[in-house]
Amino acid sequence: MSSFKALQTSENADGRFETRVVERDIGELPSGELLIRVSYSSLNYKDALSASGNRGVTRNFPHTPGIDAAGTVAESSVSQFAEGDEVIVTGYDLGMNTAGGFGQYIRVPAAWAIKRPAGLSLREAMALGTAGLTAALCIDKLEHAGLERTDAPVLVTGATGGVGSVAVALLSRLGYQVAAVTGKADQADFLRQLGATQVIERGALQVGTEKPLLKEQWAGAVDTVGGDILFNVVKSLRRGASVACCGLTAGTNFQANVMPFILRGVNLLGVDSVEIPLVVKASMWDRLSLQWKLSNLNELVQEISLQELPAAIERILAGQQTGRMLVRLD
Question: Which molecular-function annotations from GO does this UniProt entry contain (predicted)?
């Protein structure tokens, strides 16, 4: 088989971008040691930006987005992988400027791939995807910074989104009390099903931006939105607590002051899941397949086909996605 189906975003003569399913040839894929037949991918906000022509994510078009892929090695030129191996690829340049997981085949460097952990199926791996990996990295970083199970809840902002929903479920799985923040009041039951013990309306975290400090409340936090909400979280952390920052949907800037850091000794921790060493990714995937494995993963996921992706991209750009969107390519 030399042809395959892929979602492709193209720039029209008038500068508008169009996304549709096309037939591609395997020979058009970039060079790389591994040719992988993709079984599943997942829809992330970065994918939607790429599909809408955002040149901060993707420079050249036409392009196939998809920063996540899980599938089977079809060809390998390296000894570490053999035909038939099931693998996971997330991050690096996949789906940004390298044809991504929204195609039935990808070709990538072997240094981007890990073998599927025995405790996860390919479907489960992409139900988690980059969002699940990021959530796990946030929690791991918080625990290394001293997060402990106390009577104070751990706050999760953007809790109905991909990273946020997995973070709520993981924290609950690990025995933490979880306060979930959302602008979608109708999703409170969904968040409680994932394990949230408290649901907070987003507007409550936007009050007090002008104040240097707020009431101490949170044992720690996972922030997926950024902006002034992030700094309000910093100002309301308990003494010595930390917030792991991994998103920017509410903005890249905030009005800051040094008082929370000096008077309460709190920490702002940055989390990257794209360019980290492969060994770190592998260790997180192992953890997600074993001691951190979620029994309620299906509650997070809606499965769609390649043909349904364009409409799903519009929904995520409009802020209407809840949980994880799993893309079936077989």
Answer: acryloyl-CoA reductase (NADH) activity; acryloyl-CoA reductase (NADPH) activity
